[in-house]
Specification:
CATH class of the largest domain: Mainly Beta
Shape: globular
Distance between the termini: 51 Å
Number of strands: 11
Structural class: alpha+beta
Number of helices: 10
Largest sheet: 5 strands, antiparallel
Strand content: 15-25%
Number of domains: 3
Strand order of the largest sheet: 4-10-5-8-11
CATH architecture of the largest domain: Sandwich
Length: 330
């Protein structure tokens, strides 16, 4: 074995004329000396407490008035991560009003009814990442609370955007890069959160809640009777109400009313229809019933909500949108 000096000061070890091995950085070789022999070679680090995400969809909203058409028929098993790069606003999750500020992230879990209010639309720059994990309960400590995005998390956001393909088809390598970047981002966001107890909801309860959600969405413009819903779900009326209250932590009637109000919010964002038209499309029997239910859920009347969210502004009067980059959130 002969050591040869190169012009740049680095050395290389020659075992023979055809094989060369880099001596490696000195700091790494010193670090290797600190590693000790394990007591048991077959026992090592445990698997991180999160499955690799799949079915990943990345999109953004960065216009003054985002177009939210209808109630989305998204996969109810999907988790949605919102990263706020600009434009404070309120995310309504079920009955909770959560203010999301620039530099914060928020997770929306499967089956959570949600909408947005009081958005600073002139500065709006929100990143949305929809994904699937086998056990969303593993993210329980991130439920219903915004979390600050650390410097390391911003790097994972950048990595995620760098690798996410702009076309529908993605190579296996690109898909793996996106999944790993998102996985590392989620773990970084979860690292500072308070641990929570894992969900004890059985699979049958999740299926029941999903079926109720699908039934409500497909019957949004009609009168929804619990008796007919129970028959469609092959359950007794009493068992449906009891199990839904137990696992969804809300009454079935209240759940339906909140879905109707969320649908109304999205219709008001997507169109200039009158309150009478919107009330009818959301299954309310009268404008009075619509206004009363809307105020009970949102804290404002439909007219007040429209004014508060600046939804009467016509396209010709909209201000220019300020683009926000990752560096603005440091």
């Amino acid at each position: 074995m002969t050591v040869h000096k190169k012009a740049n000061g680095r050395s290389r070890i020659l075992f023979n004329k055809n094989r060369q091995v880099n001596a490696g950085p000195r700091d790494l070789r010193l670090q290797l000396q600190t590693l000790t022999e394990p007591a048991l070679h077959g026992v090592g680090m445990q698997r991180p407490p999160l499955d690799i995400p799949s079915n990943i969809v990345v999109f953004s909203r960065h216009v003054r008035r985002p177009h939210l058409h209808e109630v989305p028929l998204a996969n109810p098993d999907q988790v949605v991560l919102i990263v706020n790069l600009g434009g404070a606003g309120i995310v309504v999750l079920d009955r909770k009003r959560i203010r999301l500020r620039p530099g914060q992230a928020l997770f929306i879990f499967p089956h959570q009814i949600h909408c947005y209010a009081e958005i600073d639309r002139s500065r709006l720059a929100w990143l949305f990442v929809s994904f699937h994990v086998e056990s969303p309960s593993m993210l329980g400590q991130l439920r219903d609370a915004p979390v600050s995005v650390s410097a390391a998390a911003w790097e994972y956001v950048r990595e995620l955007l760098d690798h996410y393909p702009q076309h529908a088809a993605a190579t296996p390598a690109a898909a793996a890069d996106v999944a790993v970047a998102l996985w590392r981002l989620i773990l970084e966001l979860a690292s500072g959160a308070t641990p929570a107890k894992p969900s004890d909801m059985p699979a049958s309860a999740k299926e029941m809640i999903t079926s109720v959600q699908q039934y409500v969405v497909t019957h949004m413009g009609a009168t929804i009777r619990i008796k007919e819903m129970a028959r469609a779900l092959s359950m007794s009326e009493s068992k449906l109400c009891r199990d839904f209250q137990r696992f969804a932590h809300t009454g079935l009637g209240a759940y339906v009313r909140r879905w109707r109000v969320i649908y109304a919010c999205r219709l008001m964002e997507a169109s200039d229809g009158t309150l009478t038209e919107i009330a009818a499309r959301c299954g309310f029997t009268s404008t009075y019933a619509f206004s009363r239910t809307f105020k009970h859920v949102m804290g404002l009347s439909p007219s007040e909500w429209r004014v508060r969210n600046d939804l009467e502004v016509r396209p010709g009067n909209r201000r220019a949108v300020k683009r926000v980059s990752l560096s603005d959130c440091r």
